[in-house]
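Suppose you are handed a protein chain with no further information: no name, no annotation, nothing but its sequence. What can you learn? This example shows the usual starting point.
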Amino acid sequence: MTRLTSLTALSLAVVTILVPMLHVADGIPLLAVSSDPDKIHFLLFPDKTDVNATEELFYQNPATILSSRFRPGVKTVFIIHGFRSNVSSDMPQVVKNAFLNSGLDYNVIVVSWGALSLPTLPTAAAIAALYPNVTMNVPILAQRVADMVLFMQDIGVLKQDDVYMVGHSLGGHTVGLAAQNIYRATGRKLKRVTALDPAGPMFFQSSHVRNIERDDAQFVDVYHTNQGWNGYNKTCGHADFYPNGPGIHQPGCLEGDLLTPETLGRCSHWYAYRFFAASITQTFRSCPCNPIEFLYSKGLCPTKCLFPVNAGFHCPSTARGQYYFRTSQCTFTGCNLMEVY
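A reasonable first move is to predict its three-dimensional structure. Written in structure tokens, the prediction is:
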């Protein structure tokens, strides 16, 4: 058994062990999370001078959109978080603030699905045990996101070519499924979706939920930072990036991060969106490299090459294959590229 396979097996085992614990420890039925799409919120952040100012846009309620500060004709990014999160969580806040502070001209919308992803139960075991049920909400979320995009097109405020979706963890699979739903409805693909360490557990093997795939949009770029643990362990985009090696453990995360029950690799999992946020205003050049070769051979992936490709927000839609680059620890103030070209 290879190291990566054994890591995946351990990650699956964690989910398998925790699911029965819900009944043993808490006696709470597994259907303890909502599946109501009306509890999914679309929150517009229209003010670059006040990153906390927000206006809610309601599906099938044109007045809330037409009276908002949403700007027709401007590119629009939909930011979608993952498990046990909502609009106040780190991922949507970090990525949203990066867009607002960048000087880029975007409508910034956070899709907050906390009621469907954030179990409010008394123990960590009970919360983790609900993860399989939360994954079943991904198609519900993806359909509502697609419906909202189509509705905004119908009332004339949004063009499909202006839509960009960025998702982390379960949100990473959601952006692909939502894009596929839009394609089925319109016959046209979104220009780009970005998956930040798309979720691994319940997606490693055959799943009731479809994982993100390269055919979901005209261009799909994927960033693997904790693959085989919290992150998906297969290439699934036109371009797949593996920062700092095989995409398992990231700098700044404790060496025991992967094996500590309280963390189980979450630090490296979160690294994906911190890197992406930094890439909005910084340049990260990457080189072609197969991460499996990096992991199992004695050689190292190159950090310098003739034709480097920008990783992150500025990744070109022509990128194809697998890429590697090195960074320092990503913090609230950004990351640093460790090699200079």
